[in-house]
Amino acid sequence: MTPMLKLLGLALLLQDASSIRWKFAKGNVFKYESTYVGSVKVGQEEIKTEAGFSITQEVVEVDDKGNATLSVSIDFVRMNMPGVFDGDSKRNDPKNDMDRVFNAMIGNAFTAKIGANGKLTEVSGSKVMIERALKKLEGIEVTKEVLEQLWSDESLRKNIEPLYPILPDRAISKGDTWENESSMGSAEDEITMKNKFTFKDLVDGKTAVISLDSRSKAPGKQIQRVTTQSELKWNIDAGRLDHVKGVMKMEIAVPGEEEKGSAEFTFEVKVISK
Fold first, then answer.
1. Boundaries of domain holding 251
2. How far apart are CA 53 and CA 72, in angstroms?
3. 99 or 7, which is more confident?
4. CA 134 from centre of chain
5. Any domain includes 269
6. CB-based burial label for 123 (10 Å; 0-12, 13-18, 19+)
7. Closest to 73 in 3D by CA, of 156, 165, 155, 137
């Protein structure tokens, strides 16, 4: 084969390859809206569950390698399990303690540092958030220790980490896969997830359709097993995630019960440029 034919063959192989990276630009603002709908089962009892939250991300600084510092503020939080608890930060019923606890989070911002590949390297600012929340929650039996479990730097990182998929260090083509690990849960019950991404399709040369299959590596204290299957839509030109939709299944250890509980949720994340 002549050198020219070799070059032509290489060009044909690479023409559909895409480099997907986060493209952070100072001043850019995006809103992430997440919803979860499903149920939790323990024995014969099934509890329908709905949850959702929204955060706004502003890019504060970007270095010459594309690593960014983000200011992340909480817009709303909602969770409803009939007969167990019901909290909605927007409703903020003064007679509902969960409403007040969730509402105490609103308007608070924390800082996240993230690489151009999507890996979160640092989350900070929870101490100030907790101090502000405690002032709003006077009269409610909630302790600083409880809020630290919910909103510590580490718990905040685990909550937002699924919004920032870690990307490959190479250009990829349809059918290519890559793997990495991430964490979920809380600071008290951390679960390590093994993630397998597959580049399924390229739509209009702009949107990368990526499947994600995630499985927990080992059981946590209460969360025993987790699997998720989802589809991501990645905006190549803008260098950002546009949409996620999938299903999460969990096995749960229930205190005082020999039989394990289970949970299944459909979830969706919409990203809106502001």
1. 19-273
2. 13
3. 99
4. 26
5. yes
6. buried
7. 156
